[in-house]
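User
Here is a favour to ask of a fellow structure person. I am asking you to supply a protein in sequence and structure-token form. Please set it down just below, with no commentary around it:

Assistant
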Amino acid sequence: MATTGAETKYYVGADLHGNNVFLTVSDAASGKRVLEKRVKANLTAVKGALEPHWDRIEKLAVESTYNWYWLVDGLQAAGLDVCLANPAKMDQYRGIKVTDDASDAGWMAEQLRLGILPESYIYPVEVRPIRDALRRRMLIVRQRTQSLLSLEGLLARYGLPCPKVAELKRWGREEVVALPLEKFGQLQVETLLELVRKQDGLAEWIEKQVLRAVKAKAEFARVRQVPGIGTILGMVVVLESGDFGRFASAGDYASYCRTVDSRRSSNGKRKGENNRRNGNRYLAWALAEAAVYAVRYHPRIAAWYERKVRRRNRPVAMKALACKLAKAVWHVMQGKAFDEAMLFG
């Protein structure tokens, strides 16, 4: 990249979209915008637009959208200091009359300049594909559930009993032909059964590959000390959490797992909710599942849960248990051995 020789530093905001990136370059001293430009969403175009200012760029912020990987990774590899801006926390003044891509990119650059930009975690590029592969497994499992429900609904529409899932998966051509359905009804059953078998195979294949990649990690052994967390949930917790050092306390981690209450109150009165979706939805699912298994297989936890249910209700009790498990996960990830006092102490 070209060298300008100037001493003034610049901050850059990049408002990323699917097919373009709006770039704003701001003077670090005055905040004056020295460049506002929309370019195509490819690394060559972005680098070309920034080239005249490259050596003076102090830091660049990219909005955390669904497609940020290529831009952040590419600019970091090129030597820039890049951060990921959290769009949920960087609202502009609510009374502003007009907002557009230029104002959004400029606001990111201005927050960078003032040192107040709320940043998102940039997951390490080496491990990111493993985490994303596990997310694809979760997607396939959800689709498998939809296929099974569709099959159950099909049988119910014709007044036929639906066997348990394990038995249903063992059905072959013989069982399908024996159903009192006409040709196209049997075709639907056979198609859905084949789809479920394919989804089972894909989920198992991904699971084996991911397990091979994470089973040697010390974090994977630690997290399975926590009640309710086995192989699959352990992989989800380890891969979705990333570096546990970024969570200052067990409460911070529980909040990231979406297991804490979200409320807005004034003068002792509840006025509504804040952003209850702030956090990681995959961890929220994993801790909720862990709570179910913990109640099923751990008598002391089950007794605590039933007491909580009697005082409140089942959803509140289950979320409270998930919160306790999230805090226990944080403690064991600090190197402590699991103790029930982490839950009930």
The chain is about 50% helix and 10% strand. The first strand starts at residue 10 and ends at 16. Residues 10 and 19 are 25 Å apart (CA to CA).
